[in-house]
Structure formats: structure tokens, C-alpha cells
Amino acid sequence: MRRLMRSTCRFARCLTPWIVGCGLLAAPAWAADHNDPNAINSIFADIAPSPADLYDLFGFPSDDKSQGEQVVVALTFASVPKTGVFDTDLLYRIQFDPDPRASLAMGDEVGLGSLLKYAEAVGKKYINFKPSEVRVTFNKDNQAKVDFLGFPGGDFSQVVDTNKVINLKTPDGFVVKTFVGGRDDAFFNDLPGFFRSINYVPQYYKLPVTNKKMAEAKIPKTLIELEGNSFFNFDKNLPDWGINFKKDMPKQPFEWKGDKFYKDENGNFRFVYSGQDARAGGDVNAIVLEMPLKFLTKTPETERVVRAWGESWVLKASAKAKAIPDHKQWSLLAKLRGADSMPSPVAGFNNRLSDYKKTDVDGVPFLDAALNLREDEKQLADNVKLAEVYVKRFAHLGWGFGPSIGALGLKSCFDHSDSPVSVYKVYDLPLDAFKRAKKCFFQRVNMPDNSWNVKGLDIKPPKTFEIFVPNVASIDMDTNGSWPFGRRFEDQVATRFLSLFLDMQEGCGGKPCSVETLNNPALWASAPIEPKTVPNPLKNDKAFLSEFPYLAEPWQ
Fold first, then answer.
1. pLDDT tens, 527-540?
2. Side-chain half-sphere CA neighbours of 294 within 13 A
3. What is the b/e burial string over 310-327, where b = at least 16 CB atoms within 10 angstroms of the residue's CB?
């Protein structure tokens, strides 16, 4: 999922809740992640940046109607070995599942049983599921082989030059616009601020992956600095700490025994976020596709939601694979695509899944960092078995973010018993956690206006738990694809994710909140907090393009 690799090029002035570095060849480059499994999480002191580290999956309906309705999907990942150059030990997959809109939905009954019943229904859907997919592999000449498998019009493959827009003709007469190459990173976020909010040790200290269980300090999560939390609070004498350098691990344990939020001499809280872009000046490698909906499904009039997700796989024979755990089962029933039925690799390309280890999965933004704890075995698109884990983890986060939200004059959907300060609490039983988090899970998110509903149809925004399960981007072709109806490049999804802890019905002065509430500069300008900034940047460091591949030109 995406990790932050950060380098010194512009990171001194960049902050973000997940980073990728400005230039992997620049001197000391170390990473923070926004969504990556621990095996390749270079935020740890002893893990190198990896091309298997997926950053983001974007998906939205295209404005180009030259072939009827079309969908844009982009998978971005670490630019290793460098921008526009690809590793021959990697295989990338983007999978597609067109569905009727009402095929997966929670009932109206508010209860843990109802939530788990929804998860069970999702799981049953995937028992005999065979998604269509695109596989991309590379040869030593930096060419890409693009395989289209399981689509209604038939399978086909083509070898393409990288860093060029290529029009691929399908067997049924369509054209798929394809780009495989280096681009500017469209992830604009304050990752160090996010890591400060969850007291994430390896962002600020030299923690090896062998001690990954210590990654999250047992200190309450919070949006506001805790009084006396010297382990993570901003230090005006070390403004680049956690950005350009890390401290050695302290001898004393990470703990906090305070009972209040920090306030300055003017009575203002201190925000854990800076609002600055840690990815400014950073590049990614990317696979971008623009595909006709009629190429994806034979029934586009009824299958209006395209569910998509990306995966990275590392060749077992490569040295990179040693650190990646073996999984008894491939995620999302990969074997159903006939992994062992592929022909022997030729011309330097190998697309047989049986020769690879699955490494990373990207679907819902920030799901891995927020709920999966970046654990390698949780790299799943069909993540129904994690439903109870998510209930307990969300409640853990709620005890941190809920009181923070309340201190700022907003109302949280999480029941924290009006605690005046954030609390560190973990749960053994999902039922106990659910009692606190149920309103959050079952509330529908609010959009800021109706611009997303481009056709004016009766489309209901999803409930929060429906966003988490399954771990896919659900691209609604009757909307503009703004998150959570997909994900557009310009969406500030990190701050929208935080909004899921707001009471959407009456959390903003007794009035409804929306996914854009925390993106409103006026809110922070009037709040008793410093700095007076939105949590994350409102726009990317480079303007997006109006033409395919839409992502801005790379910096390098």
C-alpha cells in the first residue's frame, strides 16, 4: 500500500502522514509509510526502499466518452530503482470486478450481528470469484509486458515501451490507453503529522523491523498534543526531527502518565499536523489504464460499480523475496486465475504467479496503516476475516481521536464517555468495542454537496464499515468518482479518512458534518489551536494533466 520514502531533496520542508522520497538516489533516504506491509516498510531503520511497495490506487469515470463510458485506474508504487525504471523481479496486478450497485450493502439493523452478516455476505461473493485482471512484468530492456486476462472479449498481451502513452487494441475492437512509467506522486499529505498522531516510533526513532511490535507506542492516539508527551510532541529546537533525522531509541519505555492536552501560554492546543506536503517533489512509478466499461463487462447497464484493487508480487528466486513471509493462501483467491497454467516465461518476462510471493495489496486508502497495523498477513482484498479485528482497532483509535475532536468543539460518532483527554485502550472482545463504535460504523458519510452525483440519481453514500470491507476501490460509474465513490487524483483522502470519526448527523455545532469538514480552512482558523492549518495540503504540488495519463510529469 503506499509507503513514504522520503529523502533530503525537499523533505526538510515537507511533512506528511505517509511519505515516499523525493529521489531514491539522493543521500540518506528513509521512508515512512502510508500503507505498507512491514516486510517492505522502509520506515524501519533496517529496511531498504522496495519496488514492491504500493502507494495508491486511484479510480474514477473518465470524461472521455469517445468509446462510451470509460474508467481510469492508476496504481502507483515506489520508484525503485529509479523514476521510470522498473525491476524485473516484480509483477504487478490490477484486478477488476464490475458489480450491480446494490450487490454489497449493510442492512439497517444496528448491531454487531448485522455487521458480521454483511462481512459474511462479502466473503460468500468471493468463494467462486474469478476477477478480470491486468498483469505487468518487465525485461532487462525496461520494456513492459501487459497481459489482459479474463475479460469478456478475450485474453491478449502486448510488449510496450515504458514512459510512453500506448493505445492497445483489444480482441473485441476497443482501445485501452496504457501508460507504464514514472510520474509525479499524487499523494499530498502530512505523513509525519499522522505518525505523530498515533505515536509511531519508527518515524521518529531508529527502530529495526525486528522490534516491529514496538512500532506504536502505548500512548493515546490524538489529534492534539498531550501535555508532557516528550517522546513525540513537536520540539521547536529540533524542527526537522522526524523529517530529516531520527533519534536513537530512548533507554526509558515509551509511556505517558499525563491527564490533559497541552496548551500554550495563549490557551491554544498544539496540532499534531503541520498541513505541509511531505511528498512535494517526489516521484512514483505508475501503471495507468483508461478502459471502456463495455470492455470490462457485457452488462454495463446493470453493473455500474467497478471494484478494483492492486497487488505487487516479488519473484521467489530473487534476494528480495527472503524477507517476505510465505502465505498459505494467496489473497483474493489468486489461484482461481490459474496461476500455474500460464506458459513458461519467454523473452525475459514471467507472469506466472506460482513463481512469485504476494507482497502488498492496495484498495481502500489508509486501511493498512489505520486498521491492518501493516501486518504482512493482512494484505488482503477479500478481507472479511478481519471484520472483528477492524471493530477492535477502530475502537482503539476512537478513544484517541474522539476526545481530540470533542476538545475542538466538534462531536465524534465514537462513544468515549465525554473523556476530557485521549485514552489508550485496547479490546479483547469485539462486542465490547462495538458498543462504543457502532454509531460510526453504521452512519452514512455525508458529501459536502451534490457535485459527486453527476446524474442526479438516487444513490446513497456508503456506511463507514462498507468502506472498509472489502478492501477495494468501488468506482461508481454514475458519479464523478470522488472518494468514497472511487478515488480521484485531487481527493484529499487522508483528511477525509479522519472525518469518519465525526458525527455525520450533528457533529458540527448540532448540524451535519461531511467528509470535507476537516478540509475547511475556516474551521481551523477559528479553532483554539496552533498552527491554524488543515491537517493535510488541499492540493498536489503539481497540477494534474487534462489528458491521459493525467498524473503530472515526474520531477526527475
1. 999 999 999 999 99
2. 11
3. bbbbbbeeeebbebbeee
What are the backbone angles phi and psi of residue 225, rounded to the nearest 5°? -60, 140
* Phi-psi category of residue 500: left, alpha or beta, with phi > 0 → left and psi -120 to 50 → alpha: alpha
- What is the helix (H) or strand (E) element at residue 314, kind and residue range? strand 305-315
Distance CA 446, CA 332 (A): 30
CB 150, CB 131: distance < 8 Å:
yes
- For residue 192, give the H/E element and its range: helix 191-197
Length of the chain: 556
Helix axes 430-442, 387-407, angle to 10 degrees: 60
Burial class (CB in 10 A: 0-12, 13-18, 19+), 451: exposed
The pairing of strands 70-77 and 283-292 is antiparallel
User: Model's pTM, two decimal places?
Assistant: 0.90
CA distances from 139 to 65, 159, 187, 450 (A): 34, 10, 28, 46
Q: Are 118 and 107 in contact (CB under 8 A)?
A: yes
In the block, residue with C-alpha cell 475556516: 522
With beta carbons less than 8 A apart as the criterion, state whether 370 and 397 touch.
yes
Round to whole Å and give the CA distance between 78 and 83.
9
Residue with cell 512535494: 280
Comparing C-alpha atoms, which of 21, 76, 15, 37 is closest to residue 369? 37
> In 3-state terms, what secondary structure has residue 48?
coil
Nearest to 485 by CA among 540, 445, 518, 513: 445
Residue 131 reports pLDDT greater than 50? yes
Decide: 187 and 2 in contact? Cβ < 8 Å.
yes
pLDDT the model gives residue 80: 95
Residues 397, 373 contacting (CB under 8 angstroms) = no
Looking at residue 372, what DSSP letter applies?
Answer: I
Task: Quickly state the pLDDT bin for 36 (edges 50, 70, 90).
Answer: low
- The pLDDT score that the predictor gives to residue 500 is 97
pLDDT for the residue 125: 72
Rounded Cα distance between 192 and 31, Å, is 11
C-alpha span between 241 and 203 (Å, rounded): 9
Cβ-proximal residues to 484 (8 Å cutoff; 6+ apart), any chain: 445, 461, 462, 467, 474, 496, 515
Helix (H, G, I), strand (E, B) or coil at 484: coil
Cell numbers 502505548 correspond to 218
Report the amino acid identity of residue 362.
Answer: D
In the numeric block, the cell 484517541 is attached to 400
Distance of CA 154 to CAs 115, 151, 174, 275, 352, Å?
38, 6, 12, 47, 18
In DSSP notation, 229-266 reads: -TTTS--TT-TTBTTTB-BPPPSS-------SB-B-TT
Coil, strand, or helix at residue 522?
Answer: helix
**Continuous H helices in 272-365:** 293-296
Three-class SS state of 13: coil
